């Protein structure tokens, strides 16, 4: 949608998916984990039970590396296709460990070992090789003690900006996650939420990808609501959460609904000290992709209903099939200051470890 | 919220909860079901695992029957407190069989027997005793053959206007439900959706009532999306669904999201022949309660985003704790024609078995 606008410079892209080939993790894995992959007929788990949405699966067809490797596996090609032409000042890597370590419910130690190897691989191959790239600490949620150890181990890296907390059957407001939040807060890391689960109905996948993809924001609504009403931000006042790849057009509904419930039912959750919509504005940020096609009027109406133009941050979701271009995805005619916020300044404020002077 | 407006006459109230005392079902139950209740230490299942939201549980404290019986159990008191003072032209009963028959997963026959007894009790004690009251056919979703028999048995009653389809772990777009939709369509019955389940996250209840209550619309979003993308309305073109007690402020988000997904991914669901937002406008209606407090401007903004003022129908949710008054819940200053639609004409069009001439 939208007409072409001027090339964006100084972009801070809050959702870029680098991808690992499993064999690249081997040098980073201790035994016996390495041996399980090399010698024991290791089969990578399949993430989704669907026919893929596009000709190149979940990826842009043109993002396949020229040597034939899958999209997102090669830094040089990512620089050429994404970072250089779009004038990225910074990009946050959000991974594509497919599946996330959290899906191995029965084998906590292997899940934690894989997350750990992945983080080392990410630092060596991406964060240390392009100054524009920043990272996400991958952890296995089913092993909170291992997750805390991993945050302590790599969270101090100057370019690790957030902990990517996997979704599981326990919602994030549960005290189960307190040690993880405590470790994140200690290292000035934000929490990143990227759906990695079936968001709907009894934890089952719906019949079609189009349904699952439509309802991704439901997984986001569940977590926002649960975090707020379980008092997580009263306990961890510096914690902030980036809601990645869920868009933002559901937020006005959720704010309005939570505020009304808070007015009616706050006696049940006396630890919640603030109107939920205020907490959203203070502790959450939402990445734009996948941006629905909207006119300027429609776009601004949603922003108006959110009551803030400071909690929406642009993301490309490169190299996925529904990639949003920084020069084409936003409706034309938006105010320059607001566009600048979405393209860089909101993310810069959100992640304290990003360069704090515009380059 | 909202200032008092003039008394509403000719109201069609699309969500009124009558309640049964289990012993009242005994005369309507065959053996052995009756004996299970009278002789076998029958324990009524508990619907929700929470401390109740208000001093009278889920009910208005002043709705308790003066003789001490729970709210919603007495027609005379309902007439005095709800139907007469508010000038109801009609009210749709949506039940409070607590729990719904569908929650007895292991005992299909008993669930169907209870639904059947309930329908007979509903006809004798409510539909046949007040000309203003219309009914919902209760069925047990885990027993589709029994459900069809029940629709055939009581769906021909002139005052049964819809089938109240319980929620279960199978979403409504699944072919599992086709026999039920076929039977409903045959008898000119609409489908009513009233949440009776934990709407979020792996079928588990969240920790607090306030979370569950905030996320009720999620259960509605799941079903709307699933019904549309599974092609139910192409197969049953006369089927319509009333979304009860989920409000409507989530609908703009859902329409926009589904339309975008349809544009991007329709190749996956070629049986879907129409833009989802158009299907919503043609096949769905949304009851207002629980209405968030909104200004006229905010209210109209949401209606504008829905693209229709003809798919929202007023409901009181009597006798629940968060009852909406027809004279107080809507923001003041709305256009009279639009108010008249919400208060009666939209419901009248939606349910063909309601009186079709305004009385």
Automatic annotation (TrEMBL), chains A, B:
Q: Which domain of life is it from?
A: Bacteria
Cited SUPFAM superfamilies: Metallo-dependent hydrolases
BP term (GO), one = secondary metabolic process
| GO annotation, cellular component aspect | cytoplasm
Q: Where is the Amidohydrolase-related domain?
A: 44-352
Q: A Pfam family in this protein?
A: Amidohydro_2
What are the GO MF terms of this UniProt record?
carboxy-lyase activity; hydrolase activity
InterPro entries under this entry? ACMSD, Amidohydro-rel, Metal_Hydrolase
Q: Keyword set for this entry?
A: Hydrolase, Lyase
Q: What is this protein called?
A: Putative TIM-barrel fold metal-dependent hydrolase
């Amino acid at each position: 949608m939208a007409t072409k606008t001027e090339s964006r410079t100084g972009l801070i892209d809050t959702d870029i998916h680098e991808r690992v080939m499993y064999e690249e993790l081997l040098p980073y894995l201790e035994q016996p984990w390495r041996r399980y992959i090399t010698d024991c007929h290791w089969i990578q788990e399949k993430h989704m039970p669907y026919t893929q949405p596009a000709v190149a699966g979940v990826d842009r067809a043109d993002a396949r590396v020229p040597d034939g490797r899958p999209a997102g596996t090669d830094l040089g090609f990512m620089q050429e296709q994404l970072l250089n032409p779009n004038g990225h000042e910074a990009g946050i890597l959000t991974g594509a460990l497919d599946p996330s370590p959290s899906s191995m419910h029965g084998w906590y130690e292997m899940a934690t070992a894989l997350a750990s190897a992945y983080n080392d691989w990410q630092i060596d191959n991406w964060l240390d090789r392009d100054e524009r790239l920043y990272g996400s600490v991958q952890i296995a949620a089913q092993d909170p003690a291992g997750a805390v150890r991993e945050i302590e181990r790599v969270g101090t890296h100057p370019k690790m900006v957030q902990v990517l907390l996997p979704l599981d059957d326990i919602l994030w407001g549960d005290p189960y996650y307190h040690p993880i939040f405590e470790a994140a807060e200690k290292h000035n890391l934000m929490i990143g939420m990227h759906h990695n689960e079936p968001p709907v109905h009894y934890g089952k996948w719906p019949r079609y990808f189009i349904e699952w993809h439509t309802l991704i924001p439901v997984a986001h609504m569940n977590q926002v609501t649960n975090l707020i009403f379980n008092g997580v931000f009263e306990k961890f006042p510096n914690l902030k959460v980036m809601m990645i790849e869920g868009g933002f057009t559901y937020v006005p509904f959720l704010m309005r609904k939570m505020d009304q419930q808070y007015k009616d039912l706050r006696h049940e959750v006396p630890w919640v000290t603030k109107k939920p919509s205020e907490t959203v504005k203070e502790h959450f940020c939402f990445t734009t992709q996948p941006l629905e096609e909207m006119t300027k009027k429609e776009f601004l109406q949603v922003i108006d209903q959110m009551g803030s133009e400071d909690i929406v941050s642009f993301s490309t979701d490169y190299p996925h099939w529904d990639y949003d271009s920084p020069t084409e995805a936003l409706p034309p005619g938006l105010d320059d200051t607001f566009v600048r916020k979405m393209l860089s300044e909101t993310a810069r404020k959100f992640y304290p470890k990003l360069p704090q002077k515009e380059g």
